[in-house]
Amino acid sequence: MAKLNFIDFAGTSRTVEAAAGSTIMEAAIKNAIPGIEAECGGACACATCHVYVDDAWLERVGPPSSMEEDMLDFAYDVRPNSRLSCQVKVTDTLDGLIVRTPERQA
For residues 6-20, b (16+ Cβ closer than 10 Å) or e, as one string? Predict the structure, then answer.
C-alpha cells in the first residue's frame, strides 16, 4: 500500500491508501476525493481525472504516453506537470506522492 496525498484547489489535503497496481484515479474515486470526476472510468478517453504531480515526484511517476498527451489537450489549465490520474499506476515507490487537483475539470 502506498499513501497518496491529494491537495485540492483550495489547499485542503487528503491522504488515502492505494494498492500497488491500482491507479491514482481509482484511489481517488474509492476515497471520494473532490475534483476527480473520471467520467470515462479510466479508459483515457476524457480528461476529467486531470491532476498536477508535485515536481519532486515527476521523475518517479514518469512521462505521459503519447495517447495521454493527446487527451491532456482537452484538460483545463494544463501545465508541464499535468497527468491523467487514470494513467499513473501506483507502486511502492510512490508512497507519499503529492498531487493537486485543478480548479475544475474540463
Answer: bbbeeeeeeebebee
3-class SS of residue 59: helix
Cβ-based neighbours of 32, under 8 Å, separated by 6 or more: none
Question: Which distant-in-sequence residues (6+ apart) come within 8 Å of 73 by Cβ?
Answer: 47
Q: In the numeric block, which cell numbers belong to residue 83?
A: 497527468
Does residue 69 form part of some domain?
yes
pTM of the model: 0.96
User: Consecutive sets of 10 residues in the chain, 106 residues long: mean pLDDT of each?
Assistant: 97 98 98 96 96 98 97 96 98 98 94
Give per-residue pLDDT as tens, 50-69: 999 999 999 999 999 999 99
In a domain, 106, yes or no: no
Domain count along the chain = 1
